[in-house]
Amino acid sequence: MMIKPLDQAVGSIDAMKAVFARDMKVAFRQRQDLLNPLLFFMMVVTLFPLGVSPEISFLQEAGAGILWVAALLSVLLSLDHLFRHDFDDGTLEQLVLQPQPLFLLVLAKTMAHWVLTGLPLVLLTPVLGVMVHLDGNSIAILCLTLLIGTPVLSLIGAIGAALTLGLRSAGVLLSLLIIPLYIPVLIFGTGTVAAAAEGAPVGAYLALLGAFLVLALTLAPFASAAALKVSLSNS
Amino acid sequence: MSEPLLKAINLQCERDGRELFRDLSFSILPATVTRVEGANGSGKTTLLRILAGLSDAWAGQLLWCGEPRVRVRESFLRNVLYLGHRPGIKLLLSPLENLRALMAGRRPLGDKALLQALARTGLAGYEQVPCRHLSAGQQRRVALARLLVADEPLWLLDEVFTAIDASGVSAIENLLQERAAEGGAVVFTTHHKVQIAGTKRLVLTPGAVGYDD
Fold first, then answer.
1. Do A121 and A74 form a contact (C-beta atoms < 8 A)?
2. Known InterPro entries for this protein (chain A) (predicted)?
């Protein structure tokens, strides 16, 4: 009997779903890791009133910025885990060898990362927003900017995580690589809330944030996939 | 003579400034078992990673079914199964969940077939236990259960016999032999004494390359 080469592979969408589902399952088996970025986010935001000034006027002015910076740093902290465990146990090799386009599978992994880190931060924001005396409108705008902004952070961060995968102490290098790319998102994220607080229209700001998201969605997975291949090739 | 599945022409690889092999040419035919041999550090794993498409640090030509591999990458990936040093098992998931995830992108099977495969590798009763509670050999067996449900014509197996007990080793020997009889091709590396009738040897020695049938 001859074994014929096979043609049909599983569709890309089904393969993406499987990758996403597996990442979610693994994350929920290790719940304490899920809490880390949230706790960090809460701690940083709580420390500001204690360390700088508990005055309402200061907090109202700086609150959105504090929340954005804290969210950005807590996403940054969680990035190293995005591919690291998979790299160590060999599942990343198997992912790269799947017949579906790698950028789609990486996109599925990045989406799982956002659902597990970015989205909880957005959900926690209203509570912390009240804590720093933001008014209702500002909190709503802040949540919206984080909802658009945190996926960009995950997508861009995935490139850095993939590039530094082969290195033993990747943490500092990862931050150095990624933070410059985060700056525009941070500026427009906090700018939106500042504009809203002054009563200016925020449509243009949100459109720019949306453009960042589209740009990251369309380009970052290709870059992450290429970086993953390089990192695996050198391991 | 049937057409080779994979043909390597003048492969050359350098690692950390040291040449592992050069002018390495060989064909992997259907229905054959090939054993890659060489001392530690002679480049067996590197060769298998190159063949699997994981490593880019090589020169030469690789043809899949007569076509340059880069041009038929998707079909190549679908047709080759690579099992490396790192078994690709998530320690937090159970053997069944691992197997399901590994097959999802290639050949989704019902749980019945997967449970059967796990039972045949001696993991009956452990299907739902997280893999971190299993022994090293049992974890290895989860990866091997994949071979029982694999339909890829070419298998690249790096050190599959590691941490497997004697009865397991002979079970794998039989599996590989059956696979070759069915028309599949197997390339493997091992430091174990393994008896598989008709095994070809691909010997990697620094500087020179031997290939005898």
1. yes
2. Cyt_c_biogenesis_CcmB, Cyt_c_CcmB_bac
**Ramachandran angles phi, psi of B3, nearest 5°:** -65, 135
Q: How far is B146 from chain A (nearest CA, A)?
A: 12
- The total number of structural domains that make up chain A: 1
Q: Give a yes or no: residue A5 inside a domain.
A: no
Instruction: Say if A3 falls within a structural domain.
Output: no
User: Would the pLDDT of A218 be above 80?
Assistant: yes
Q: pTM score > 0.80 for this model?
A: yes
Say if residues A166 and A186 touch (Cβ distance below 8 Å).
no
**The complex's ipTM?**
0.91
Q: Return the residue in A10, A92, A94 with the most chain B beta carbons within 10 A, the one to mutate for interface testing.
A: A94
Determine, yes or no, domain membership for A152. Answer: yes
Nearest Cα to A167, choosing from A234, A92, A97?
A234
> A47: domain range?
12-234
Q: Judged by CB atoms within 8 Å, which residues 139-178 of B form the interface with A?
A: 151-153
Residue B153: how many other CB atoms lie within 10 Å: 25
Q: Give kind and range of the element (H or E) at residue B188.
A: strand B185-189
Give me A195's structure tokens: 């504009």
Q: Using CA atoms, how far apart are residues B89 and B139, in angstroms rounded to an integer?
A: 7
Residue with tokens 């420390």: A47
Residue identified by tokens 């579906």 is A100
